[in-house]
Design a protein that fits this description.
With about 290 residues, the protein is α+β, with helices and mostly antiparallel strands. The chain has a single domain, classed as Lambda Exonuclease, Chain A (Alpha-Beta Complex). It has 10 helices and 10 strands. Strands 3, 5, 6, 7, 8 and 9 form a 6-stranded mixed beta sheet that branches. Strands 1-2 form a two-stranded antiparallel sheet. It has a two-stranded antiparallel ribbon with strand order 4-10. α1 crosses α7. The N terminus and C terminus are likely disordered. The protein binds iron/sulfur cluster. The site of iron/sulfur cluster has 12 residues, from α2 and α9.
């Protein structure tokens, strides 16, 4: 086992993937914008720090996963209530907020956790829609948000999810169980914030928006090829490195605010194991 400059032991890595082997999602494109080197570590070298579980955001992510799973099961007509008492109190509160919203009783055909994918410029682009509601003349994408802060509309307009989801829905139309073709003008997207239920974010799509998003995506993918030729350089925005978990790899320094004993390089588990200890895991629910 080798050591980093800071003396932190590092585990052997998995074989590095090529760009063609990576599924590009809104998250991966956002990470690429943040730092190309970080994109390489996470998506090509598949590295992660297991110590991330000690951070507060891990708890928030777990709550978010549980809430998404509750809504998915509700959408599929499964009984949710018998499982609620085993869940985090915060998630139970969120569930009551959801039940009080119009989303608990959607009109039209509901597809939950709908996967989409399409090859563009030689890359595989993927998305998973939390919900798609189909009614004649309308395709409504819904995405559930559990974060504390609701970003400003101007920030959200630049979000990769906001741009990629409607675009991929139009691109991957043949994968959908639709009756006949549809126009981009029929597509809309809503981010619904369970902690801010009265402040959803809406985007109404159009042919012009589709062309603009496609051009932006193509430019990003071409830029990705250039970054590959440079082996994914480190971000010039060095302030982003201060709290980065890979700071020791890039700069030989510990990330700020994290005890050194909690830091260990590790290989990203490709699939999170579902254990009976997780009351929302599929295996548990199907018992
Ligand atoms: S330490 Fe800085 S350059 Fe290195 S991966 Fe993190 S953000 Fe990128």
């Amino acid at each position: 086992m080798r050591s980093t400059l800071s003396g932190i032991p590092a585990a052997p890595s998995l074989e590095r993937l090529s760009l063609e082997q990576v599924n590009l999602s809104a998250s991966s494109l956002a990470l690429l914008d943040h730092c190309p080197r970080l994109f390489r570590y996470v998506y090509l070298e598949r590295l992660i720090w297991p110590a991330a579980s000690v951070f507060e955001h891990e708890l928030e992510q777990r709550r978010g996963r549980q809430f998404h799973r509750l809504v998915e099961w509700h959408s599929r007509g499964r009984q949710v209530e018998p499982r609620l008492s085993a869940l985090d109190e915060v998630v139970q509160q969120w569930w009551q907020v959801f039940l009080a919203s119009s989303h608990a009783h959607p009109q039209g055909r509901v597809l939950a956790e709908l996967p989409l994918w399409q090859r563009i410029e030689g890359f595989k682009l993927i998305a998973r829609l939390d919900r798609l509601v189909i009614i004649p003349g309308s395709l409504h994408i819904l995405d559930w948000k559990t974060e504390r802060q609701r970003p400003r509309d101007e920030q959200l307009a630049q979000d990769w999810q906001v741009r990629l989801y409607p675009l991929l829905l139009c691109e991957a139309a043949q994968q959908l169980p639709l009756e006949g073709p549809f126009e981009p003008e029929q597509v809309q997207l809503t981010f619904w914030y369970v902690q801010h239920p009265q402040q959803p974010f809406h985007r109404y799509y159009s042919a012009a928006a589709y062309e603009q998003d496609l051009a932006h995506l193509r430019a990003t993918l071409n830029h990705l090829r250039q970054l590959e030729a440079q082996d994914f350089p480190m971000t010039p925005h060095t302030e982003r490195c201060n709290s980065c978990l890979f700071r020791s790899r890039c700069h030989g320094l510990l990330p700020e605010g994290i005890p050194s004993q909690d830091l260990t390089d590790w290989v990203w588990p490709m699939q999170e194991p579902a254990t009976p200890a997780d009351p929302i895991a599929d295996t548990y629910w199907e018992q």
